[in-house]
């Protein structure tokens, strides 16, 4: 019985969202996530403004199209990750779906790490690059966070 539940947990697929202005990171992350077999869909946005627009639209209806997990960069043009998080928090009252957010950055500045902890919706701060094993671990953990 335990073996069956472990197998079924490994095959759970999640809706993933990448918010990052770096096209190479987006391409690489998408390929790695696809290779894990754990991503049902992968949404990509190149700045926080595009993403928050999508979230506003889907939070009214079609919440099933919202991601289960967000990998959010902090340094982006138009709307950076911090601004995204501030706008996202305004939407939380309307969201019935729990979404896990990982801040993903090349910054190792302790100020950024501490700032990410001020947002209750941020699960963790992860320093780039992220390899396949790390993505797989993070997505497999979603089963323990959601529902």
Q: What is the compact description of this entry?
A:
The protein has helices at residues 2-10, 23-36, 48-60, 81-91, 110-116, 132-145, and strands spanning 14-19, 39-45, 69-72, 100-105, 122-127. The protein has 147 residues and is an alpha/beta fold.
The CATH class, by name, is Alpha Beta
The number of helical runs is 6
Write down the Rg. Answer: 15 Å
**Helicity range of the residues?**
40-55%
CATH superfamily: Response regulator
Q: Largest beta sheet, briefly?
A: 5 strands, parallel
Describe this structure in words.
By secondary structure, the protein is of the alpha/beta class. The protein has a single domain (11-145), classed as Response regulator (Rossmann fold, 3-Layer(aba) Sandwich), CATH 3.40.50. 46% of the residues lie in helices and 20% in strands. It is built from 6 helices and 5 strands; from the N terminus they run H-E-H-E-H-E-H-E-H-E-H. The chain has helices at residues 2-10, 23-36, 48-60, 81-91, 110-116, 132-145; strands spanning 14-19, 39-45, 69-72, 100-105, 122-127. A 5-stranded parallel sheet has the order 2-1-3-4-5. Helix 3 runs parallel beside helix 4. It is globular and about 35 Å long. Mean pLDDT is 88; it is low at 1-10.
Features:
single chain; 147 residues; alpha/beta; Rossmann fold; five-stranded parallel sheet; 6 helices; 46% helix; 20% strand; globular; disordered N terminus
């Amino acid at each position: 019985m335990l073996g069956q539940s472990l197998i079924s947990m490994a095959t759970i697929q999640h809706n993933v969202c990448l918010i990052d202005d770096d096209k190479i990171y987006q391409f690489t992350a998408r390929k790695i996530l696809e290779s894990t077999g754990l991503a049902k869909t992968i949404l990509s946005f190149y700045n926080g403004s595009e993403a928050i627009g999508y979230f506003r639209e889907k939070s009214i209806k079609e919440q099933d199209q919202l991601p289960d997990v967000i990998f959010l960069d902090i340094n982006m043009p138009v709307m950076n990750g911090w601004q995204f998080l501030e706008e996202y928090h305004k939407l939380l009252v309307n969201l019935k779906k729990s979404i896990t957010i990982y801040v993903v950055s090349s910054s190792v500045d302790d100020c950024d790490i501490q700032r990410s902890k001020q947002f209750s919706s941020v699960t963790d701060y992860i320093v780039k690059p992220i390899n396949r094993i790390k993505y797989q671990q993070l997505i497999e953990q979603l089963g323990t966070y959601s529902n």
